[in-house]
Amino acid sequence: MGGWKQPNENSIEALRHGILFGDGVEFDLRVDGDGELVIFHDEFAPGEGPIMERCIENLPTGYLKSSGIPTLSGLLDDREFTNSWQSGGKTVDIEFKLPHPSTKISTMDYLGSAMSKLESALEPLDLPDRSVVVSSFSPKIAEAAKDSSFSIPVIRLMPHIRAWG
């Protein structure tokens, strides 16, 4: 009686399940040390060793994949995911995460590069209008989008944190 088992967070399986059985999904993107877009929330890869040596933006794709971190290209290769997205009625919110300050990577350069890579990756899918939005906590997201002629709508996330908690 093999019941449903919740997939690991940030996995291709979890994102596939979300888009198939919900209105869409949200996931975080980072640019790794090889220039690939990887799906990962945290600043540092799991594992041992000094934290600063585990910055996602400094690590190669192969290492990250071996640590269980999926790539955007891997997600877009999943036909169940992309077919559901292309069929309409689904929204994908892609949040750009910024590199840790220790990497000394320029925010504007990083966002511009990520935007260019994302547009190139999504262009062949011919997605329905308004089915993708890019978000970021960076106050520079709108400026970066304008500077790079980014065609996907962007939203700056601005959390409200209560003074007492």
**C-alpha-based Rg, rounded:** 16 Å
Given as residue ranges, the uncertain stretches (5+ residues, pLDDT < 50) are: none
Q: How many strands, which pairing sense, and closed or not: the largest β-sheet?
A: 5 strands, mixed
How much strand content do the residues show? Answer: 15-25%
Helical residues, percent:
25-40%
**Which strand order spans the largest sheet, edge to edge or round the barrel?**
2-1-3-4-5
Distinct helical segment count: 6
User: What is the mean predicted local confidence, pLDDT?
Assistant: 93
Order of helices and strands: HEEHHHEHEHE
From the N-terminal CA to the C-terminal CA, the straight-line distance is 44 Å
Let me know the number of strands. 5
What structural class do the secondary elements suggest? alpha/beta
From the spread of the alpha carbons, the general shape counts as: globular
